[in-house]
Amino acid sequence: MKKNEIRKQMTTPLGAPAYPSGPFYFRNREYLNILYRTDMEALRRIVPEPLEIDEPLVKFEIMYMPDVTGLGAYTESGQVIPVSFNGEKGDYLHAMYVDNHPAIAGGREASAYPKKLGSPRLYIDSDTLVGTLDYGSLRVATATMGYKHQPLDLELARQELTKPTYMLKIVPDFDGSQQVCRLLRTQTKDLTIHGAWTAPARLQLFAHALAPMADLPVLEVISASHIVTDLTLSKPDVVYDYLKEQ
C-alpha cells in the first residue's frame, strides 16, 4: 500500500478497518433516562476542569439502537453529568458501556466517547420498561420505569437530547505521556422524535471496581423519560486543550 493511500485510511487493520467512516444515522433509537440526585463531593472528584457543576445531578441512560448505518445493532449504557462551560449548560459524558466493538473503537478513536465493553439491555417486562447493565458476569445497574404511563412534552424531550455534550479525548504516547488531552464539544441537531413518555422510575447501582457507577450513589430519583428517535451524530469540536495550557 502506497504512502498516500495509507494517509487516507480511517483506522487499522488495513483492508479490514474496525469501523466505517460514517456519518452514522440511527433509526428508532430508544432511550431510558433516569435523572437522580447524588453526592456533590463525589461529583467534584470526577468532573474535569474547566467544566463546572451547578447541581449534584446525574443522568443514568440506556440506549437500544436496532438500526445504525455502518455499525448494525447494539445497546449502550452510561452516566451523564449536567455541567456548564463558559456559561453554557450541557452534559458531560462520564462513562459508557457498549456491547458492539465497531461502536467502541469508532467512538473512542474518531471522537472521544468514553466507551468500554459491557453488556447493557433494554426490554419490556410485563408493564415495566427495564434497563440493566452487566460488566462481565456481574450486575452493575438495574433501572425500572413504568411503561408509557404519561406522554412527555416533545419539546422537553428534544431539549433533553439536544444539549451540548462534553467529553475528554486522551491519547497516550508509547512512553505513557499524553499525546492528546482535549475537551471536546458536540451537539445533536438532526433529530426526529417518534414518541416520548414519563413514569415512576427506580435505579439500583452495584459496586464494581472496573465499572464504578455506584461511586455516584442514588440519593433521590428526580425524573425519568422514555424516548424513541431518529438522529444523526454530529462531529465534535475542540473547546479546550490541556496540553497547550501546560
TrEMBL record:
Keywords: Decarboxylase, Lyase, Schiff base. Its EC number is 4.1.1.4. The active site is at K115. Pfam families: ADC. It is an enzyme of class 4 (lyase). It catalyses: acetoacetate + H(+) = acetone + CO2. Belongs to the ADC family. Catalyzes the conversion of acetoacetate to acetone and carbon dioxide. This is Acetoacetate decarboxylase. It comes from Shouchella clausii.
